[in-house]
Amino acid sequence: MASYSTNEFRSGLKIMLDGDPYVIVENEFVKPGKGQAFNRVRVKNLKTARVVEKTFKSGESVEAADVHYTQMQYLYNDGEIWYFMDPESYEQLSADAAAMGESVKWVKEQEMCGITLWNGSPLNIEPPNFVVLEITETDPGLKGDTSGGGGKPATLETGAVVRVPLFVQTGELIKVDTRSGEYVSRAKEE
Amino acid sequence: MRNDTWRPSARLEVLRARARLLGHIRGFFADAGVMEVETPIASRAATTDPALQSLQTSLSGTGTKDRTLYLHTSPELPMKRLLAAGSGPIFQICKVFRDGERGHLHHPEFTLLEWYRPSLGYRALMAEVADLVRCALDRPELSVQQLSYRELFLDHLGLDPLTADPKDLRRAAEGIPGSREMDLGRDGWLDLLLTHHIEAALGRGWLTFVYDYPPSQAALARIRKERVPVAERFELYLEGMELANGFQELTDPREQRRRFAADLDKRAANGLERLPEDLEFLAALEVGIPETAGVALGLDRLLMVATGSAHIDEVLAFPVEMA
To answer: Which of B70, B196, B253, B290 has its CA 20 to 30 A from that of A65?
Structure first.
């Protein structure tokens, strides 16, 4: 099994700790001039996204985590499982709700998504930074507090709810930044 | 994209501060009547210190077979050969090399100031270190705090580092994530506690000297035989950083041979290759070196304090990754 020595530690390295895959966020070398060296690291659990600290005695080895990143096309879901396909090899894989996480709010069929794989199964699905989605429901009028600029809630075809300006109407396409969950602009059919 | 990797890592104003720092230090020693010396960077002998790794290079064309030379981890042993030859008080500013050390306070080659004071004891040398740092930083008001290693651990952790057994030390380290899986000896546990629970608080706004270490951490310091023996060694901390390490130097050749042998055993136990020790140094010790105190101070870290830098790369012209 592949492993890394603490000498190879750097941010971005994927390692196994207590049975879970982690990525090193920060690695600090700590050593008294005449004493034992340690690597004090901050690591992120790739399943839970929780960041924790851990210290290793320098020179020790840690099992490598078989974690890869790839891009695949989202096909459809059957309510429990979300299906993806590699557009070149036609290879398919399925992700559960835990791997989908917040991404269920943003992905639309045919969209290319970033997928983090651990031992070949999806750990995490990343939607594109920007998606174009149709508004299925929003308050039709220009009512509301026009001076505050707060806008109004709009429900999108994927079920996500975002705040949009008052002039945007049901049936229109809008561009949304999936990282912030914010409306960017109106969009045209591609 | 434009290639900017040729540019220095440190700002030019920091490099000017480095030049000023070196000037202040040389002025300080000129006034004190301490002679500047140079000793070889590359030597036939490697360090025996189990905590340090020598970098190596090879030499050819001197009429002998090609041979390995080791870059010094400190100029300590050749400087003691000069003391044995009657040099009197000496100092050196040089690059030293330590393989495998890299972090925000570590760089595999760094600048060390090392000096020896045959007429002073190690406690008096601590006072001179304080004067040197005040002069180098141009901060005459910096005050001094002195704590024995024992007081340090009693104050911070409520345990006696000279008598606590490894079980107690392991228990004290339980809050450090990862410590449960660690396999450490007594000194390893003490180092873990020092670096994780104590060090960051030391020397905040003043100079903190820690002195009288456990004999197992004596390195090349003399051991004072008391009811609980201690090594006559000190360290200086400033702004949470270890800046200097000093000794009442070991001058007894038999004890020195014993320490070298113990170091080599420890290195072998850690799976490290056996490397040649400095036999010329041992020969000088047989002839006799004067009773002396000596200290080594990391100038890059001192410059970090002088310039308010958080990472050693901010004070280096070209860190190893761009060298």
So the answer is: B196
Q: Can you give the pLDDT at residue B5?
A: 84
- Determine the average pLDDT of the residues in B151-180: 96
Q: Is there a contact between B191 and A32 if contact means CB atoms under 8 Å apart?
A: yes
Classify residue B51: in a domain, yes or no. Answer: yes
Residue B79 lies in a domain: yes
Subunit contact B101:A29, Cβ cutoff 8 A: yes
Cα R_g (chain A), whole angstroms: 22
Neighbours of A131 (CB within 10 A): 21
User: ipTM score of the complex?
Assistant: 0.93
B233 is a domain residue: no
Out of A29, A35, A55, name the one closest to residue B106 (CB). Answer: A29
In 3-state terms, what secondary structure has residue B249?
strand
Interchain CB distance below 8 Å, B177 and A34: no
Asked whether the beta carbons of residue A34 and residue B245 sit closer than 8 angstroms, the reply is: yes
Q: Residue A140 above 90 pLDDT?
A: no
- Domains of chain A from N-terminus onward: 3-63 (2.30.30.30), 67-126 (2.40.50.140), 130-187 (2.40.50.140)
Counted domains in chain B: 1
The CATH number linked to B109 is 3.30.930.10
Residue in this structure with the two tokens 């040197």, named with its chain if needed: B132
Q: What is the pLDDT of residue A139?
A: 87
Contacts of B100 in chain A (CB under 8 A): 7, 37, 58
B196 to chain A, closest Cα gap in Å = 9
A102 interfacial to chain B (CB closer than 8 Å):
no
Residue A150: per-residue pLDDT: 72
Give the whole-angstrom CA distance, residue B83 versus residue B312.
Answer: 32
Residues sharing a CB contact under 8 Å with residue B185, sequence separation 6 or more, in sequence order: B166
Q: pLDDT at position A189, please?
A: 66
Residue A144 has pLDDT above 80, yes or no: no
User: Is residue B312, in this structure, part of any structural domain at all?
Assistant: yes
